[in-house]
Amino acid sequence: MSTVAQNWSTKIAAWRHSGLSLPAWCRENAESYHRAIYWRKRLQPSDRCETGGFVELTVPAAPITLECNGILVHIAPGFDPALLVDVLSVLKRD
Known about the structure:
Blueprint: H1 3-18, H2 22-28, H3 33-43, E1 64-68, E2 71-75, H4 81-93
C-alpha cells in the first residue's frame, strides 16, 4: 500500500471513529470531501463481482398471481407451462 493510501486509510479510520458525518469531519480536518469519498470507496473491501460477472440467484419457489382481463390466475410452483399458455390464450380472446 502506498504512503498516500496508508495516510488516507488512517484518516478514514479516524473519521469512522469520530462519529461525525463525513462532510463535518472533512470541514473540521481541512480535508477535501470529494477526495475523502474517493479514498473511502477505494479503500473499502470490494464484495462486488468483477465487471461483467454474474451472480447466481436462488429464488425460492413461491406461488404467483397474474391478472388478465380482470381475472386472477394463481400459479403454483411446478405448474404446467403448456397449460398456462392455453389458459392465457383463452383469456386473451375475451
